[in-house]
Amino acid sequence: MSWELLVWLVTGVAGGALLARRLTPPVEQTEAFKRAREEGEERLRALEAAALAEHKEREREQAAAARRAEEERKEALKRREAKLAERERSLEQRDQEMSRRDRELSRREKEQLRRDKQLEAQEAKALEDLAAAERELETRASLTRDEARALLVAEIEERAKRESVERIRRVEDAARELAEEEARKLICQAVQRYAGEHVAEHSTVAVPIREDQTGKIIGREGRNIRAFSQLSGCDVLIDETPGSVVISCFNPIRREVAKRTLERLLLDGRVNIARIEDALRRSEAEVEQLARQYGESAALELELSGLHPELLRLLGRLHYTSSFAQNALQHSVEVGAIAGMLAAELGLNAKLARRAGLLHDIGKAADQLVEGDHAEAGAALCKKYGEPPAVVSAVASHHDEEAQDSVLSQVVAAANALSAARPGARRPALAAQIKRVEELEELVGELEEVERCYAFKAGAELRVVVDNAKVDDTGATLLAREIARKIEEEMSLTQDVRVVVIRPTRVVSYAR
After folding, report:
1. Is the pTM of this model over 0.90?
2. Which of 366, 397, 421 is at the close of a domain?
3. Which of 51, 172, 283, 411 could form a disulfide with 261 if both were Cys (CB 3.0 to 4.6 A apart)?
C-alpha cells in the first residue's frame, strides 16, 4: 500500500471522528470520540505496519533483482573474457602455424633452387653428350643428322602402320566373330519362331466375266465403262484376257473397291450409272469395314491393345498395299513379331517393340495425306494419335531418315531389314539390280590403285583386283577399309557388301 493512500485514510478517519464529535452529545461524544480515536489509531498503526512491510518487501525485491542483474553482468563479462582468451590462443596458434609454414616454404624453395641447378647442369652435360654422339654417328654412318632423322621417322611410321593394321585386324576379327555369333543366334531365334503367310499383290486384278455380260459392262457407246472408270478412279480393260475384266490402278484401296463394285454389279445384273454409284458406295463402306477388321486382327495377333481406332483402320488399309510383291500388312506383323522377339532376347520391353514394329510402315497407308516420306508420315500419325515417344522415334528412324537415338529404334530397323531381306520376301526389279551393280563397279573403279573390279551375288560381294607392285599387304587392308567406307558414304545400301581385295602374283619364266 502506498503512502498517498495511507495519508488519505488518516485524513478520512480524522474527519469522521471530528464529524461524530460534533453530532453527538458531549458525554457520548467523548466516549465515541475515544473509541473512534482508538480505532483510528489502531487502524493507523495497522496501515503503517502494512505499508512498512510492503516497502521493505519491495526494497528486498529490488535488491534481489539488482544482485541478479549484477551476477548476470559478471557472468557475461566472464564469458566474453573466455571467448577473447580462446580467440587469442587461436590467433597465437595460427601465427605459429604460419611461421612454421613460412620456414617450410623457405626450405623447399632453397631445395628446389638446388635441384634446378643440378638439373640444368645435367641437361647441359646430356646435350653435350648427345651432340658428341650425333657427331660420332654421322662420322660412322656417313649420314647427316637430317638424313638420319628422316630415315628413323620413316621406319617408325612404317612399323607403327603395320602394328596398327595388325591390331585393328585382330580387334575387328574378334568383334566380328562375337557380333556375328550373337547376331546369328538372335536372328535365327527370331526368324525361326515366326512363320506367316506371304501374299503377293500386283497393280492389276482380274474379275471373271461371262461373254453375255461384256455388253452390259461397256454400255451404250461405252457409257457404263467410262462412268465406272471416272467414279472408281481405275482403268478397266476388256478383251485383254478372255473371260475376264482387268482392273488397273496403283492405289490398292481404289483397286479393291473397284473390284468389289464390279463383282456386285455382275451379280446384280443391272448396270447403269445410278447402280454403279450405289455399288461403289457400298463397296467403299465394305472395304473400310474390312480394313478395320484387318487392323484389329493384326493387333490381336501381336497381343496389342489400346491402339487408336484410326490407326487400326490405317493398318487394315495396308492389307491392300504391297511393296516388292510383299504384302505391307503381313510385313508389318512380321516386323512386329521379330522386333518383339529381338527385344525380349536383349532384355527390352517386348510389347513396346511389337507395337513399334507393327506401326513402322503406317505412313504407307496415308502418306499422301501427310507431308514427307512414309517414315515421317507414320511418325506424325503415331504422335497425333497418342503413341509413346519411343514408338514415334522408332517409326521415324527405321529407314535412317532420322538418327536412331535408342536401342528400340535399332531393333525395329533390324527387324524391318530381316523381314524385307529374307529369301522369297521380295522380288526386286532386274533393271534396278543391274543399275546398282554397275554403279558399284564404277564407284570403286575410279580409285587409282584398282585395276579391275567385279560385283558378284547381285552386289552383295565386290572383288577388287589391284596392282601387286603398288599395294602391299598392309596397303591392301587399308584399301579394303577405304573402299567399304566410300561405298557406305556414296551409296544407299539395302544389304551388306563384302569387299575382297586381290593382289595377284605374276611369275614369268622362259624355257629356251
Report:
1. no
2. 421
3. 283
